[in-house]
Amino acid sequence: MTGARDLSSADQTAMRLRVESLLTDLQRMVETVAREPAARAVYSNASPGASAEFRIVSPLAEGADRLVAEEALKLGYKLSAPFPFARADYENDFPDSKDAFNALAAQAEIFELDGARGALETASYEAVGRFVVRNCDFLVAIWDGKPARGRGGTAEIVQFAALSGVPVWWLNLSGDEPRLIYGLSQFRRRERSPRGPESLELIQAYIERLVVPPPVLPPEYRGVISHAVRFLKRAQGREQSPLETFLSEPVALASGGLWRSYALFVRLVMRSTNPASDPIEAIAPAPKLPSERWWKPYFDRADHLSVAYGERYRSSYVLIISLAFATVVTSLLGHAVLPPLVALMIEIVLILSAITLIWANHDYRWHERWIFYRLLAELCRKQMMLSPVG
């Protein structure tokens, strides 16, 4: 962000110290969060021995852009430099500091955007500013808090970051304590935005959301009853990750008996004339490519599980409605034909059966598994086609 070139030499030195402190705090917080067991388990499995990589994204304009880039390089950050124009054209913006620009560019991974001079010049500067926002987790803004002087100015880019949900650490040119702007409301009331320890706590929480993977917690685990279900599952050793659940599912998942209730309902009520088997499936050729042979067992498993859980979910609704109807009929018969005690016992059995179905649907997540495995099957089918082309 621009602005630091307007400071005196002494003030620029003070600003460098503030930037160094800020970037050091970021490194410390990320490394602390990365050592948490949940994060370490995921990232060490994905890339053994991997460590956090810190990167600064800067267009290397005179002033704050270069100041932050220089301090970041000293701390071991890598440098990515998006330019609004081709490098040979962009360096003409800095006739008095071309050597300093090229010295930083030589240490950077450069991205040349397809900007243009003339009528599109200001739009090109705006585009590179937005490119920075879209490719960073934090935006460091050295800014006097005043409106932008033109399109793509500091205020406009900070506002774009606030709209995009990217936190902004605002270093005011007046020397005030750094503030955190996170969201449009804080941008509009930036003089009241968090600062000091409060801003550091918010940044720490944001980093945790970025680095630590979310826990595997199905959406129905809410409320007292859901916590009780989760406790029982843990006690029985039944709580698993989605991958573990998929691989441990019985391939020959029962799909007959009660779970044909929905299919029977469709035949009786909708008079379906569809054949019992799919003729296309019967004549489907066996996979020939190695990638198809590798993926097909996973597709078959996911496809079968999706169909089986879909039948359970839809059949449970047919059965629950049937049990509710039978309960009403039994109650009427208890007033006319059946002994009241017998009718009451039958009603209790019917109601308990319906409650059991509702509980089973909730506990075993039939609907969720139906949708998950349908999506997984289609992704496996797509991989059969994509694998041969890399």
Q: Short description, anyone?
A:
The protein is mostly helical and 390 residues long.
Topology:
Layout lengths: L8 H26 L2 H10 L8 E3 L6 H11 L3 E6 L3 H4 L7 H8 L2 E5 L8 H14 L4 E5 L10 H11 L3 E5 L6 E3 L2 H5 L8 H15 L11 H14 L5 H7 L12 H10 L8 H4 L7 H47 L3 H25 L1 H21 L4
Parallel strand pairs: 1-2, 2-3, 4-5
Antiparallel strand pairs: 5-6
Helix pairs in contact: 1-3, 1-9, 6-7, 12-14, 14-15, 14-16
Structural key phrases:
390 residues; mainly alpha; 3-stranded parallel β-sheet; 3-stranded mixed β-sheet; 59% helix
Overview of this structure, please?
By secondary structure, the protein is mainly α. It has helices spanning 9-34, 37-46, 64-74, 87-90, 98-105, 121-134, 154-164, 184-188, 197-211, 223-236, 242-248, 261-270, 279-282, 290-336, 340-364, 366-386; strands at 55-57, 78-83, 108-112, 139-143, 168-172, 179-181. The strands form two sheets. A three-stranded parallel sheet has the order 1-2-3. α1 (9-34) packs across α9 (197-211) and α14 runs antiparallel to α16. It is elongated.
